[in-house]
Every structure is written in structure tokens, then in C-alpha cells.
Amino acid sequence: MTALSHSQKWLLCMCLLAGGLAAQTPATPFGPADYSAVMVIHLKGGATQRMAIAKRGAMWRSQIAIPGHTMTELINLNTRTAYMMLPQMCMKHALPNLPPGGMLAQAQQNHAKTVDLGPATVTTGDGKTYACEHSRVTYSQQGKKQTIDVYAAKSLHNFPVKLTTVQNGRTVTVTYEHIHLTPPAASLFVPPAHCSGMPGFPH
């Protein structure tokens, strides 16, 4: 197996974080069961990383460009299994400590407190403006306070068009563009027949 470069490992971590942010299910109050969109991760200094995502029920898929390649991730929230695919390799691992509803469900599991902050307007990078309900979810994880600000668009069945998380003093903002609520093709979520275990992750 070819070793991952430092930049590939960093993007892998970002993919896993984004998967937790995006993979919401009907068990949570945020977002429809099926959709496709472009996720934009906002980084320090104004830089952004774009990721094509799709969700169909309990299956989630993302594609992100890394230097010289495209990396694809598949997540099955029922089996809590993830597949990371690069042109030269495929890696499979379990998703520890991730409840079926993603990060928002994890917050609820940890006795989260949700505060309604009222209406807000969010304009996304594709020029769409959405009337949203702004909520702040606060919870404790391993003794540390975590917060998630959620901007749920009323016209998109409460799809969270913007999410801002604060963990360990670090803020990560994710927005979404080109949102479609029709179910993506089931063929997009079929994992490869053979994948090796990912080093350092439970299989």
C-alpha cells in the first residue's frame, strides 16, 4: 500500500470531520434523508476546500480533490463503516463513537442544550439566499464544552446550509451550495469488493 502524504492525511481528517457534520438522518431535527450538494469547508486565512457530497438514507458519499488525485469516501451509518478510495488504494475502517445521526445526534446523546436564536439569512457561494432558523447546540464531550451553530433553511426541509462548530478552541465553518433534495442514484453508494484496513483505525 502506498503511504499517504502529509497533505493527504490532513484532507482525510477533514473528510472524516465533514462526514460527521453532514451525515444527518431523520432522527435529528436538521436536514432531509436524501440530498446532494457541494460542501465548502472554510479554512484559516479565507481559504476553502470544496467537496461534492451525496446522501441517500443511511449512506453518505463525498468526493474531494487532493494534489494529483480525487479521493472518494463512502459511509454506511447503519453498519458504521467507512471506505476511503484513492486511485492507488482502498481503505476500510469502522466509525467509532459516531451515532447514526452524525455530530448533531452525538450532541443530543450527550444531553445537549439547544437554544433557538431566531431567524437568520444565509447567502451561499452559488448566490442562493435562504431564510433560516439559527440554533445553538451546546454539549460536553469528555469534559470539554462543544458548540454547534446550525442554520437550517426552511425551504429545504431544514437542511443545515451553514454549520459552525467550536471544539477545543478551534472553529470550523461549513456551508453548502448547489443543494438538490432528490435521492441520488443508489449505484453511487456501492463500496468496492475488496478494501484493506486503514492503519491506526479499527476495522
Which key features would you list for this structure?
203 residues, mainly beta, 12-stranded mixed sheet, 2 helices
Question: What are the SSEs and their pairings?
Answer:
Elements lengths: L5 H17 L11 E9 L5 E9 L2 E8 L2 E8 L4 E6 L2 E6 L7 H8 L3 E11 L5 E13 L2 E10 L5 E9 L2 E11 L15 E2 L6
Parallel strand pairs: 6-12
Antiparallel strand pairs: 1-2, 1-11, 2-3, 3-4, 4-5, 5-6, 7-8, 8-9, 9-10, 10-11
Protein architecture, described:
With about 200 residues, this protein is mainly beta. It has two helices and twelve strands; from the N terminus they run αββββββαββββββ. It has helices at about 5-20, 100-110; strands at about 35-40, 50-55, 60-65, 70-75, 80-85, 90-95, 115-125, 130-140, 145-155, 160-165, 170-180, 195. A twelve-stranded mixed beta sheet has the order 7-8-9-10-11-1-2-3-4-5-6-12, with helices on one face. A hairpin with a 2-residue loop joins strand 10 (about 160-165) and strand 11 (about 170-180). The chain is globular.
Put the structure in a nutshell.
With 203 residues, this protein is mostly beta strands.
Unreliable residue stretches:
1-29, 98-104
What structural class do helix, strand and pairing data support?
A: mainly beta
Strand line-up in the sheet with most strands: 7-8-9-10-11-1-2-3-4-5-6-12
Strand % is: over 45%
